Description:
This protein has helices spanning 8-19, 25-31, 36-49, 65-76, 82-88. α1 packs across α3. The chain contains five helices and no strands. It has one domain (8-88). By secondary structure, the chain is mainly α. The longest helix is centred in the middle third of the chain and has 14 residues, at 36-49. The mean pLDDT is 86.
Amino acid sequence: MAKRKHSVEWMIDRVNEYLSGMGSYDSIAHANDIAQATLIRWVAAYRNYGADAFTKGAGNKRYSKDFKTSCVDTVIKGELSVNGCVAKFGISSD
């Protein structure tokens, strides 16, 4: 298992900067040398799960074929974006 580059507290601080209106995704990501897409995923996960989004689970998750198909269908139908689907269903990566 790979070690996290940032502490949970640090990630939550970046999320709170965005949620409190202290900056845009782009400005906060740029100022903290992280990818904008990463910050977007953190914010979406935090909105769905709170701080637990950053502390749950260790190791690789396995997903059934039916689960994967359901997620793809959800995105194709326009019900969620890829990032929204990743956040809502707790998928570790897009």
